[in-house]
Amino acid sequence: MTKDNTVIDAVHVEGTIKVEAHNVTIKRSKITSTGKYAIHVEPGYKNLVVEDTEIDGNGTSKIAILFREYTLRRVNIHNFFDGIRIEGDNVLIEDSYVHHLYRVEGGHHDTIQMRQGSNVVIRNNNLQPYNPDTDDPMNAAIQFGSLLGPIDDVLVEGNLMNGGNVTVNAGKLGGGSVVFRDNRFGRDYRYGVLSRGPGLVWESSNVYDDTSKSAP
């Protein structure tokens, strides 16, 4: 996709959408991934919006969307190795559902994985690393790791998260501001809700979904 301001509306796409343009919109569509990725935002391009869309990994694809400069709104992501990858700035994920990841031997499966970036908001989503079909908690709802650069100016609020070895793995944060508030947590994790790291702000409004008591 190489033309600025392109709109894809009510289309079923099979394969990978490579975004090499500004201000692209994908809405009311379905993407069935047949390669490693469903959506790949190339460096230097901004303002991709995906909304009211289903992204199906077909039990073979690695990641639904990567890397930076995108908005996901009311998106249903399923059947991927990992759901969402963030490696850069200006990402908004809201009102979306990431679920039914598939496991591979030695895999590290997360609904959202963030490796670097700033100005990131993750709001009002249902993030389910736990796969009820296989009774597998996977790795994390949100996995942070400063593998490529700093992580800063991140807000995570109003989400339901369930599963993971730990549901939020923030142990590898490097000290930038990452705020969690008003989130609810299920109990289908392997070890617990949280692994803390430097820079994490964890407010008491984060609660267990079944009791409304502060978590962890």
Put the structure in a nutshell.
The chain has 216 residues and is mainly β. The chain is 0% helix and 47% strand.
Care to describe what's here?
There is one protein chain. With 216 residues, the chain is mainly beta. The chain folds into two domains: 1-80, no CATH class; 104-216, no CATH class. It is 0% helix and 47% strand. It has no helices and 24 strands. The mean pLDDT is 95.
Order of helical and strand elements: EEEEEEEEEEEEEEEEEEEEEEEE
Overall mean confidence score, pLDDT: 95
Radius of gyration over all CA atoms, rounded: 16 Å
Q: Return the structural class.
A: mainly beta
Q: What composes the largest sheet?
A: 16 strands, parallel
- The number of helical runs is 0
Total individual domains: 2
Q: Approximately what portion of the residues adopt beta-strand conformation?
A: over 45%
Backbone shape: globular
What is the number of strand segments? 24
Helix amount, in percent? under 10%
- Oligomer state equals single chain
Alpha carbon gap, first and last residue: 44 Å
User: Which residues sit in consecutive blocks of at least 5 with pLDDT less than 50?
Assistant: none
Keywords:
216 residues, mainly beta, 2 domains, 16-stranded parallel β-sheet, 0% helix
Layout: helices, strands, pairs:
Blueprint: E1 7-9, E2 12-14, E3 17-19, E4 25-27, E5 30-32, E6 37-41, E7 48-56, E8 63-66, E9 70-78, E10 82-87, E11 91-94, E12 97-99, E13 110-116, E14 120-123, E15 126-127, E16 140-145, E17 154-157, E18 160-161, E19 166-172, E20 178-181, E21 184-185, E22 192-195, E23 200-202, E24 207-208
